[in-house]
Specification:
Number of strands: 14
Region (Disordered): 50-84, 138-157
Pfam family, one: Pentaxin
Radius of gyration: 30 Å
Largest sheet: 7 strands, antiparallel
Coiled coil: 85-131
GO molecular function: metal ion binding
Mean pLDDT: 76
Number of helices: 6
Strand content: 15-25%
Keywords: Calcium, Coiled coil, Disulfide bond, Glycoprotein, Metal-binding
Length: 387
C-alpha cells in the first residue's frame, strides 16, 4: 500500500485524478445542502398550503336555529391577503374599464355586437363574483381583527353591486325597459353580507298569505329565503331551512315544520297561509296543498314597523346575519297578502294564470327592493323559466 501511495504521489495523472475526485466530492456536498434547503422550503410551503386548505373548509351545521361559532370560508387562498386583494382589485378595475367601453359603444350603436359584448362581460363578472366574494370572505374569517381587510372587502362589495346595477341598466337600454316585476334575485354564496331588503314594512296583520318562486340545490339546507324582524322580536316572521332539518315557518318565534321538498335545483312555487284565530296554517307547493296545522302563534297579530330581508336571517332588527343561515339560490315573485287566499287563487299563481292576483300588502317590483353585497338581479318570467 505504501508503494501504491508513493506511486500515486509521483504520478501526474494520478494527482489530477485525486484533484478531480475532491472537486466532485465538494460538488456533491453542495448539491446535498441545496437539496436539503429545497426540502425545507417544500415542507414550509406544504404547511402553509395545509393551513389555507383547513381555513377554506366550511364548518358543518349542527341543527336548525342553533348558533355556531364556526368558520364559513367558502374559497381557497394561495397568496397572502394583501396580494390576493390587490389582484382582485386589479381584476375589478379591468372589468370596470371594459364595462365603461361597452356602455359607450352601446349608446352610440345599440347593435347586436354590443349586446354580445355585454353578455360576455356579464358571464365574466358572474364567474369573478364567486371568486371575489369567496376569497374575501375567507380572508375576513381568517383575520377578523384586521380593519384593512374589512375595508377592502367593503370596497369590493360596493364595486360588485355597482357593476351589476350598470349591467341591469344596459339590459334595459338594449332590450327596452322590462316590466318591474319580471326579475329574480340570485344569491350565489353563503355570506353574512349578501341580501336584499324591502323598502317598506309589513303592516299589522291578523291573517296572511305569502308566496314566492324559489330555486336551490344547496345542502344541507337552502338557508333563509326571508326574515321579518320588529323591534321587540327578531323572529316575527321567518322562513328557514337550516342544517338537516325540514323547512320551518316562525311566527313570534313559534315554529311549525313545513312539508316542502325544494332543494333539487328546480323552480318551485310555494305559498303559506295563516290566520291568528287558532293559529291555523296551510302550506302549498306547486299549487298543491302539502300540509296544514294549527296552534301556530294563535291570537298573535303580525307586528308592524319592522324590516323584511330576503336571503338572510336577522338576529337584530335589520342585521345580525349569520352566514351559515344565509340563503343560496334564486328567488322571484315574493308577494304578501293580508288575508288567506283560496286554493284556486294559489293554483292560479303556481300555473301563471292571468287571473292570478298580486300581493295587496307587498308586491314583487324592482322599485320596492334594494340589493346589497353582490346579490344580483336577472330578467325572469316565472312559467317560461320552469326547469
Amino acid at each position: 500500500m505504501d508503494l501504491c501511495a508513493a506511486t500515486m504521489q509521483n504520478s501526474g495523472p494520478a494527482e489530477d485524478l485525486k484533484t478531480t475526485v475532491m472537486q466532485l466530492r465538494e460538488t456533491v456536498l453542495q448539491q446535498k445542502e441545496t437539496i436539503m434547503n429545497q426540502k425545507e422550503t417544500i415542507r414550509e410551503l406544504t404547511s402553509k398550503l395545509n393551513r389555507c386548505e383547513s381555513q377554506s373548509t366550511p364548518e358543518p351545521g349542527a341543527g336548525a336555529r342553533k348558533k355556531e361559532q364556526g368558520k364559513n370560508t367558502m374559497g381557497d387562498v394561495s397568496r397572502g391577503p394583501s396580494d390576493t386583494l390587490a389582484q382582485l382589485g386589479q381584476t375589478l378595475a379591468t372589468l370596470k374599464q371594459r364595462l365603461e367601453n361597452l356602455e359607450q359603444y352601446n349608446r352610440s350603436n345599440g347593435s347586436v355586437q354590443a349586446n354580445s359584448l355585454k353578455d360576455l362581460l356579464q358571464n365574466k363578472i358572474d364567474d369573478m363574483e364567486k371568486q371575489v366574494l369567496s376569497r374575501v370572505n375567507t380572508l375576513e374569517e381568517g383575520k377578523p381583527g384586521q380593519r384593512n381587510d374589512t375595508d377592502q372587502r367593503n370596497k369590493v362589495e360596493s364595486t360588485l353591486t355597482s357593476l351589476h346595477h350598470r349591467i341591469t341598466d344596459l339590459e334595459k337600454g338594449s332590450k327596452g325597459h322590462r316590466p318591474v316585476d319580471k326579475f329574480q334575485l340570485t344569491f350565489p354564496l353563503r355570506t353574512n353580507y349578501m341580501y336584499a331588503k324591502m323598502k317598506r314594512s309589513l303592516p299589522e296583520m291578523y291573517a296572511f298569505t305569502l308566496c314566492l318562486w324559489i330555486k336551490s340545490n344547496a345542502s344541507p339546507g337552502v338557508g333563509t329565503p326571508f326574515s321579518y324582524a320588529v323591534p321587540s322580536q327578531a323572529n316575527e316572521l321567518v322562513l328557514i331551512e337550516w342544517g338537516n332539518n325540514p323547512m320551518e315557518i316562525l311566527i313570534n318565534d313559534k315554529v311549525a315544520k313545513l312539508p316542502f321538498l325544494i332543494n333539487d335545483g328546480k323552480w318551485h312555487h310555494i305559498c303559506i297561509t295563516w290566520t291568528t284565530r287558532d293559529g291555523v296554517w296551510e302550506a302549498f307547493q306547486d299549487g298543491v296543498l302539502r300540509g296544514n296545522g294549527e296552534n301556530l302563534a294563535p291570537y298573535h297579530p303580525i307586528k308592524p314597523n319592522g324590516v323584511l330581508v330576503l336571503g338572510q336571517e336577522q338576529d337584530t332588527l335589520g342585521g345580525g346575519f349569520d352566514a351559515t343561515q344565509a340563503f343560496v339560490g334564486e328567488l322571484a315573485n315574493f308577494n304578501v297578502w293580508d288575508k288567506k287566499l283560496s286554493s284556486a287563487d294559489i293554483y292560479n299563481l303556481a300555473t301563471c294564470n292571468s287571473k292570478a292576483p298580486s300581493g295587496n300588502v307587498m308586491s314583487w317590483s324592482e322599485t320596492n327592493i334594494d340589493v346589497f353585497g353582490g346579490a344580483t338581479k336577472w330578467t325572469f318570467e316565472s312559467c317560461r323559466h320552469l326547469n
